[in-house]
Amino acid sequence: MAEAAAAAAPLRVEVVFSAAAGQVQEWSLRLPPSARLRDALRAVHLEDSACATGIWGRRAEHDQLLEDGDRVELYRPLLVDPKVARRERFARQGARGAGLFSRQRPGGKAGY
Can you give the CATH number for the domain in which 32 is found? Predict the structure, then answer.
């Protein structure tokens, strides 16, 4: 009996979307037990979004079944490649102001 009641209980799911840096939107939903990722997106009117989707940080397709407690995330495209951003930041700071060698002992050689 308890298994049948648990199977019929609605799923609690969170949907998280950040349209821009510093702007986070979150929705808490209750969906039927057989709900899929697309159902959660449809419930918050984001089913037509071109953003990539995932569950708890792992890419997921729209036909993925949801489980109770899942966190559905929409990922906006990166504006800058993280490797390029790191190189540019390092170039601005210089070799002495970043990384392992930023706290060099007085009089020590570069890189030590």
Answer: 3.10.20.90
Q: What is the mean pLDDT of each run of 10 residues along the chain (112 residues)?
A: 62 90 89 91 88 91 91 88 86 64 61 52
Q: Is residue 99 part of a domain?
A: no
Whether residue 93 is contained in a domain is answered as no
Measured in whole angstroms, the distance separating CA 45 from the mean position of its chain's CA atoms is 19
Our count of domains for the chain comes to 1
pTM: 0.65
Report the alpha-carbon distance of residue 76 to residue 98 in Å, rounded: 29
3-state SS, one letter per residue, for 2-69: HHHHHHHCCEEEEEEEEEECCEEEEEEEEECCCCEHHHHHHHCCCCCCCCEEEECCEECCCCCECCCC
CB neighbour list of residue 102: distance below 8 Å, 6 or more residues apart: 96
